[in-house]
Amino acid sequence: MAWAILFFAGLLEIVWAYSMKLSEGFSKFIPTAFTIFFVVLSFILLSYSMRTLPLGTAYTVWSGIGVVGSFLVGIFILGESVTLIRILAALLIFTGLILMKISSS
To answer: How many domains would you assign to the chain?
Structure first.
């Protein structure tokens, strides 16, 4: 159950990062409110998953989901550039997430 909660917390990290981008430096109220709401909810779920998962594993997986997910949102929604180096970097992060999951089983 902790892994499912951690995964959902990571997805919420993607949501708050995207809404932060939309807030344009917290100058727009609705995206700013979404950012604050999803940051808090993501942290609550992360802390709940840490009841049973090790700190290093939980935090690394949570942040990695957010990093890779935000990278994909940037490409597919915001039209950011796609380069071989950026894709390789994201694949290395994703590989690290898989290895963290395997190593904590």
So the answer is: 1
